[in-house]
TrEMBL record:
<dbReference type="InterPro" id="IPR046342">
    <property type="entry name" value="CBS_dom_sf"/>
</dbReference>
<feature type="compositionally biased region" description="Basic and acidic residues">
    <location>
        <begin position="88"/>
        <end position="97"/>
    </location>
</feature>
<protein>
    <submittedName>
        <fullName>CBS domain-containing protein</fullName>
    </submittedName>
</protein>
<keyword id="KW-0129">CBS domain</keyword>
<dbReference type="Pfam" id="PF00571">
    <property type="entry name" value="CBS"/>
</dbReference>
<feature type="region of interest" description="Disordered">
    <location>
        <begin position="1"/>
        <end position="20"/>
    </location>
</feature>
<dbReference type="InterPro" id="IPR000644">
    <property type="entry name" value="CBS_dom"/>
</dbReference>
<dbReference type="InterPro" id="IPR051257">
    <property type="entry name" value="Diverse_CBS-Domain"/>
</dbReference>
<feature type="region of interest" description="Disordered">
    <location>
        <begin position="75"/>
        <end position="97"/>
    </location>
</feature>
<feature type="domain" description="CBS">
    <location>
        <begin position="10"/>
        <end position="67"/>
    </location>
</feature>
Length: 97
């Protein structure tokens, strides 16, 4: 499993949203089956952040629900290629911590 490419274990397709997406819309999208996170992309389709259900719960509990996801998305986002071995991707994630 460790030497297989990332493409064999990644979620496809990964849903993406623009940074101005509301908390309500993001929460609705995250309720869809097999949607653990939303990738936030700018107009050039560059990944600029990631939002999860736990991100939304934390923000709503602290500040209410009238913000866009751009204000609390996780960033920067570490990316890799689909052909990267899972072992190398795991090493990259550990190094980024």
């Amino acid at each position: 499993m460790i030497d297989v490419p990332v493409s064999s274990v990644m979620t496809k397709p990964t849903p993406s949203v623009p940074p101005e997406t509301s908390i309500v819309e993001a929460a609705s999208r995250l309720r869809q089956p097999n949607t653990p996170a939303l990738v936030v992309c700018n107009t050039e389709k560059t990944i600029i952040g990631v939002v999860t259900e736990s991100d939304i719960v934390a923000v709503v509990a602290e500040c209410g629900g009238d913000r866009s996801i751009e204000s609390f998305m996780s960033r920067p986002v570490m990316t890799t290629t689909p052909s990267t071995p899972v072992r190398r991707a795991a090493d990259q994630m550990r190094e980024a911590e």
